[in-house]
Amino acid sequence: MKQKNILTWAISAIVYLGLVIGGYSVSASLDSNNDHTDTHDEAKINGNEEKESIKEQTHKDNHSKDSGHSDHVAHSKSELVTNVKYEDGLITIDVKDKDQNSPELEISHEKIMHLIIVSADLEDYYHLHPEEKGNGVYTLKFDLPENSYKAFVDIKPKNLAYKVSPIELHVGKGHGENEENSLKVDTNLTKTINEKTVELTTKEPGINKDVTLSFDTKGITPEPYLGALGHVVILDDKGEKFVHVHPTSEERTLFETKFDKPGIYKVWGEFKFDGKVNSYPFVIEVK
Asked: How far apart are alpha carbons 31 and 28 in whole angstroms?
């Protein structure tokens, strides 16, 4: 009888111990599942937050790119210093970086340098191409009449910021810095040079929006000139704001640009006919 009671007690203890262990295991399993679920949910939330953060940053980056400057204004500051001088029929341009080293220039429209020279009254216009002589020096033999000029060195330096700015140039005596122009807006935008007629048509240009300059060459396709059907140079009435524009396609004489302030501008359209380059001047107003 005594042995039977001990056996009964032993079996009861084993059953009780099994129930305790089983209950603990179920509880641990539930806690583990809850922890896993919580961790999963937290990872999901963090993942979503990270995706939203990436998405927001991408939007900001795209917005930053979209709100960039117009194509013809390369940089607000220049890392180069350019000097232009004229003596005895020789134009000399010196180009140096801040350490007085000669920068490497890239070819742009078939030339390493485009030198635009206009008289102070914006009447005389020259588009020239000096040649490299070494050590940042470029020269060109060219006879400039006595006058006061502004020179624009249009180059594409490699890995350096550069902004085209006017450089005063005086040839002969009696020509000072106070000479000004008196531009008047053209009422007729049709010009004939060397028996070739070109007409400028455009919608009334405004500021900070795309403006298309369309040049009607009256059924005559211009000859290729510096890798394009033509070139357009624009200056404001003070001769300070420089814009060099190329056609939007290889088949049509259409040019797109932007104006960032109202005022009077002079436009030169350059087109090549019968082996000669004609520069057609137009004066327009941007309102």
From this structure: 5
